[in-house]
Each structure stands twice: as structure tokens, then as C-alpha cells.
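Contributing: when you submit paired examples, paste them exactly as shown. First protein:
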Amino acid sequence: MECSPGAEDDSLEYDIAVLPLHVLLGEAEYYDGVTVTPGAIFAWAESNKKAPKTSAPALEDAVELFRPYVEERREIVSFCIAEGMSSSGNIMRMAARELDAEKQIWVVDSANLSTGIGLMVIEAAIMAQNGSSAAQIVEKMEELKPRVRASFVVDTLMYLYRGGRCSGLSALAGGALKLHPKIIVSDGKMSPDKKYRGNMQRVVMDYTQDLESQLKTAEPDRVFITHSGCGREIVDAVRAYLESLHIFREILETTAGGVVSSHCGPGTLGVLFISRPD
């Protein structure tokens, strides 16, 4: 079983359980993807002119999620958001100790987020279905980790700016909040990269086309288009472009969860994939 906060829902096909993070809107606390949606988060943020806050899962929730698998004596490979961004991994390790199951539960620091984790989770689940042990899966994930390519462009910088999660934003001077930067996830951190201007449809297509050289060296199994509520025409244009490259066997579209949406805001879109080994 792969247990991943932030992984998208392929649970029925791949036997994946999800441990949701928490979203705090003022004094109210919600379970990401369970009791709150990105739309509700954006409405609250705009109404209150504040950044939503997020927190790691509760220890008791992690324990209760793991418990049935531990009792069945199954091995668990558990993926967490980059440990520099979240304490989820530590919560998972504490849950393993609570259950006296440290030899059954393997915690992988994804060094990533959202479908950057999801790409690894799917690869791990396929390995599990094919009979690989937890140790073999974890070894493979460590090899895959630096090859995950996760980036996105944002419609508004306000959420990242208010949340303070993206290092380097202070270097965007002057009209920074009118820019649409590409944000890359590398070594467990988010940082701004190329800056775009213009309407979001043009920005998203420029961003996607700028990835072409990387896409041509990607593993061909799958690519994710992940967004936080972009217009249908924007997502369809990205899909059509990716199809025109004739690289990927699967082009998967997912909607970002509440925690990612809390920090990136509405209109964010990313193209995520795994690169081939050098």
C-alpha cells in the first residue's frame, strides 16, 4: 500500500490510501479533500483577505489509517510531502512507533508535492502489484526522486506571497504581483524561475511549450496536467499540445487538492513527469 498526502486519487486502481492534511480557515479546521474544497478555500481567502493555513495530519489519524494494514501484517510504503515543507513524514514515523510497526512501515520523503508525489506513488504501486518488496520499492523511489520534474505557473502571486512558502519571491521587485512566474520544485523546495506576462491562456501555453525539450527526454508512461480550477479551454489546449508531441502513453488530468491550492491560488497549472535516466 502507498499512503500519500497530496497524491491524486487513483486509489481504486492502485490500492492507495490517502492521509489528508489539514486546512485552517480562520478558527475552523478541515480535512483536505474530505470536508473542504479548493473553491471554498478561495472564497474564504478572498472574503477575508488572508492566506489559508495548512497543517500536517494528526497522529491519531495516521495511526488509525495504518492500523488495519499493520494488523494484516502488510508492508506499507508511505510517501510524505517534502520534509522541508511539511512535518507529515515525522507524523508517519511516530505512528509507526505507536503501532510498534517500524519494520512494516517505510516512510519516503518525496522531496516533492502534489502529483510530483503522485508520479512516484503510481510507480511504487505498480511495483507492489508486480510483487516487489517494500525495500525494493523504496530503493527504486530513491533513484526516481531526482528525476521527477514538477513545476507550475500561477495566475496570482498573492497566495504564495501571503503564505511565505516560496523562497525567492522577495526578489521579484516592483510589479511582482502582476507577474506569472514558473515555480519549480527541486530538492524539496519551491523557487521562482522564468517569469511570464500576459493573459493566463497565453502564459500557460508559453510555459508548456518551454518544457518541450524536457518533455522529449521524459519517461513515456505518463504525464500529469494538474491545475487548481483553470478554464476548460486552457486545459484542453495543454492536452492537445502534449498529444501533438506523441511522447506519452497516458495524459492524466487532475485537480490540485486543498493544501496545494491554499498556497498557489486559483488558476495555477502544472505539467509534471519523470525524466529518463541520463
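Second protein:
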Amino acid sequence: MIVAPSLLAADFLHLEREVGMVNNSEADWLHLDIMDGAFVPNISFGFPVVEAVASVCRKPLDVHLMVERPEQWVERLARLGATFMNVHVETARHLHRTVQTIRDAGMRPAVTLCPATPIMLLEDIITDVDMVLLMSVNPGFGGQKFIPATIDRIKRLRELIDRTASHALIEVDGGINHATAAAVATAGADAVVAGTAVFGAPDPKAEIAFYHSL
């Protein structure tokens, strides 16, 4: 299983230390949640923090934009060296154009679905993206409980990917713990975002290693 610890749950007073832990762990990516207080009822961190993190992080950056008008940030994220730029289907008004712009900028395009957004909306974009992020909680805050219906959504998304011969990965974000991570892996997910489960653990590296072993 691909593991992307979420910086949102890190100790913001010691970000360099937290990123260093991720660098020295079995984590595959570092997940960055950018929130604007408009699309979601919270504000996380902006580009000055992302730039500082990027300067010390040795893992690929998986950037999740929970913002209105995500297309305006393509070039800036590309300059910072982001690997994935993940935009919400619900906010990207011209989704295909945004996906192509992300790829043209040298990043890997990904799209996100909120828990109540139908999987079928991906029918005409699934072969153009490198990853789909399924939110297993409502976006905006860490530490929420996993929504059980996500398991069926993973299975339906996996069927769509297989049917269309898409190469897209399935990533799941929200409420990840030992039990839910095992369940999403069995359902067909390729990657998990783990925030509180990792940064709140007594031994974060061991926690990352557990998810990586699934």
C-alpha cells in the first residue's frame, strides 16, 4: 500500500522535525491539504508553508487543493515541485482543461470526490488522470470517523478503472486506522492518506510501516 502521511495532523510548531520523520520513514509521499475557508469551512496553510516544506521534503508531494478555482494555482505548485496536484470535481468548473493544464505543467493530475459525489461523474475523465482521491470523511477537518459507504465506492471506482483500462490509482483520505486501512486495501485502493493515525501515534514510523505492509 502506498502511504501518504498528511501534514495537516503534524505538530505545526516543529514542522521541519515532522517532515524529517517522514523523510526517514517508509512513507511514499507527503500529503498536503490546502484549504481556503470557502470550499471547506476551515483554513489550513498556504503557499509559504508549502514552499518551506518542499525545501526539506525528500518525498514526492501529494497536494490536495480544497479550494475554489484550483486552476489558478497550477503554475505555482509546479514551480514548487509538486508531484501530484489534486483538484476537487466539485470546484473545477472546466475539469478536463484543468487536468490537461496540470499535466502540461509537469505534474501528475488527480481528482477528488467528496463522499456524496457520484462515481459516475468520472466516466469521461478517468483515462486522463493519474489518481482519484476518494474522501472517506467530509473534507475540511482531520480526525473524523471513516464513512463505511466508502468501501462500496472504492469497489465501484475500481470497476470503472478496470473497464476503461485507466491507469489511475485509487487514494483514500479520512478516518484511516488499522481496521479501515485493511478494509480499503481489500476493496481495491492503492494508497491511503493517514494524518492523526500517523502523527498522533507513539511511534509514527512504525505506524507508517504498518500501512505500507498492507
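If you have annotations for the second protein, write them as plain sentences, like these:
The longest strand covers residues 30-35.
Strands lie at 2-5, 30-35, 61-66, 84-88, 108-113, 131-135, 169-173, 191-194.
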